[in-house]
Design brief:
44% of the residues lie in helices and 16% in strands. The chain is of the alpha/beta class and 208 residues long. Keywords: Endoplasmic reticulum, Glycosyltransferase, Magnesium, Manganese, Metal-binding, Transferase.
Amino acid sequence: SGIDFEIIIIDDGSPDGTQEVAKQLEKIYGSDKIVSCVVISVLLSPGTAYIHGMKHATGNFIVIMDADLSHHVSLYLMYGAKQKEGNFDIVSGTRYRGNGGVYGWDLKRKLISRGANFLTQVLLRPGASDLTGSFRLYRKEVLQKLMEKCVSKGYVFQMEMIVRARQLGYTIGEVPISFVDRVYGESKLGGNEIVSFLKGLLTLFATT
C-alpha cells in the first residue's frame, strides 16, 4: 500500500491464543511493524488498552480496531482518505449512515444498539451518528488529550470519547462501515453493561 504503519496488539492475557499468534506475526513481519503487548488484567477496559497502545505508538495517527475480525482492515484506506479530505481530528466508522450496516446480530442486539444511539442523540447532540462503535482513527495528540478527560469504562467509554471531542472543539468525519458480528467468542454485552451505559449517559448529560 505504500503506507508506513505499525500494528500494536494489546492482549489481556486471555487463553484464546492471541498472544501466540501475535508473536508469530512479530517474527514474520519484524518487531518494527508488529508490537505485541500483554496486559495482565481480569477486566481490561478500552481506556486501559488505549493507554498501553499509545505508549508504543510512534505514528501521527492511531487507528483503533477490534481484533475479532468484526472490523475489516481494508477500511483503513477509506479512513485515511476521509481524514485528508477534511483534515479531521477523528474519523469514526458509522453503521447508521450511507451504506453502513450490521450483519449477524439478532433483533435484540440491534434494538439495544439503535436505542443507545437514539438516546444519546436526543440528550447529548454529539455531532456524530454512531456513538458506540470502536473502529476509529485519531490524531495521536487528540487521543492523548481525550484520554486525559474521559473517565468512563465499558461501552459508555466510546460514547464519552465522541462527546468530549465535540466539547473540546475537535473535528469528526464519518465513514459508513459494514459491521460483521464475530464468528468466534461471545460479546460481553449484558444487563450490567446496559445499566452502566444508562448511568454514564445521564452523567454526561448532567456534566456536558
